[in-house]
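Continuing from the previous page of notes. For each protein in this section, the sequence appears first, followed by its structure tokens. Read the first protein now.
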Amino acid sequence: MENEERDLIVLTDEDGKEVQCEYLDTVEMNDKLYCVVEPVDAGEEYDEGSCYIFHMVENADETVDLMPIEDENELNAVFEKFLENNSDGCSGDCSGCAGCEDK
């Protein structure tokens, strides 16, 4: 993946620390847009392999703010939609499956 071009953005966390993230996807659901990102260098503060989902809010000046999602049901629904959009046909049920390692 080192030679593959990635879409990177820099976010500022609640402690004011800048976090470089890879943009994974934009999910549209219920007339709202959500941004899914993954920290590039997880470090101690972020779980490796975890993604973070934000509600995208467009401002009058056409900039976009990424807002945390407070509602756990909304967050889970968006995550499920993200998985569905990026599943490559995998149902997640590994019974009888050779495993993802073969892909």
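Done with the first. The second protein uses the same format. Note its length before scrolling.
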Amino acid sequence: MRVRILGCSGGIGGRHLRTTSMLVDHDILLDAGTGVGDLSLAELALIDHVFLTHSHLDHITCLPFIVDTVGAMRNKPLTVYATQATLEIIQTHIFNWAIWPDFAEIPTHEAPFLRYETIEVGKPVRLGGRSFTALPANHTVPAVGYHLDSGKSSLVFTGDTTVNDELWKIVNRIRNLRYLIIETAFLNREKQLAVISKHLCPSMLADELLKLQHAPDIYVTHLKPGQIELTMQELEDDIGEYKPRMLQNNQVFEL
């Protein structure tokens, strides 16, 4: 299993800043933020599955464009996987004919460009020997993270979350955990904002990592544009012993 980072920024503002999305092998997306826009038409047409963590715009921006752009180039629907709550938000507020056409009905109800698949926390979805399991997240809207397992090793992406004891109970049972990608959206001086918006800041991440019983490589995502260097310095000061690294566009993880 090959995971390529298409976007990992908490915002936009330059060619190197793309919001959250990961390409797994050639056919699966994990979230569909603005990073998807850098893929070619041929690459977009190969995507069969999209797993969503939650419905916030920075994680779904390109989903409507993917299906509109390459739907007619494909011979089967694009399948979107998410919790029932997230799918209801997407259907009600995005694919509703007011914001974007309902591609679950286009070109026909019997042969649409888009279909939905409901997932549940803790229940794996297996695709060609690859396992995707939703993990609990604690955010302002219904949200999950994901455990990606190739059979040889695993990657955990927390998605957007704040303090989350349930997550660590599950993560600590993953024996082949190799990579942990976790968010840190705010500086320490903005801790109250992090709490209100259900994100993390460096001091909060430090407390969360005390619950981790493994020693995976740790990568930090969702850094805010204009605050990247300062946030990474605070992470070094607060949790340097964990050696957290900044997640970067086009970084590749082999599982």
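What the second structure shows: The domain at 2-254 is CATH 3.60.15.10 (Metallo-beta-lactamase; Chain A). The mean pLDDT is 97. We return to this in next week's lecture.
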